[in-house]
Amino acid sequence: MPTTPAATVREAVADTTARNEVHLIGRVSAPPEQRVMPSGDELAVFRLVVDRPAAARHGPRSPTIDTVDIVCWSAATRRKASRWAGGELVAVDGALLRRFWKPPAGARVSRYEVEAFALQVLRRP
């Protein structure tokens, strides 16, 4: 029997250990992009389109989907993501992180994204 979000919150409150866990199921919007950072580190980046449950909407004009940026730093997650095309239904387990950087011409900026620790294809299109 699936766990409801309220039950999950109650379990987390009962266990007072702080943690940063993200569990998402959604569709890959396009094939992941492979990038090399100035430091030489490699990563794969893709966007996950996740349906927003009706209970989380705040009125008729509220969004019905969310798009979430996912980054894959480990070799295993980069390899797995690199085989994906757009439209696949996938599960992502990871952690929410906020990345800061300063572009060459401008003020410091930041972005929230999910760092993927585990990936799984649930259904191909």
Describe this structure in words.
- The chain is mainly beta.
- 14% of the residues lie in helices and 46% in strands.
- It is built from two helices and six strands, in the order αββββαββ.
- Strand 5 and strand 6 form a beta hairpin.
Spans of at least 5 consecutive residues whose pLDDT stays below 50 are: none
Average predicted local confidence, pLDDT? 87
Give the overall form: globular
Helix fraction, binned, reads 10-25%
Write down how many β-strands occur, each being a DSSP E stretch of 2 or more residues. Answer: 6
* Oligomeric status: single chain
How many helices in DSSP terms?
2
Order of helices and strands: HEEEEHEE
User: How can the largest sheet be summarized?
Assistant: 5 strands, mixed, barrel
Estimate what percentage of residues fall within beta strands. over 45%
Ends: how far apart?
26 Å
Query: Which structural class do you get from the secondary structure elements?
Result: mainly beta
Looking across the biggest beta sheet, what order are the strands in? 1-3-4-6-5
Whole-number radius of gyration?
16 Å
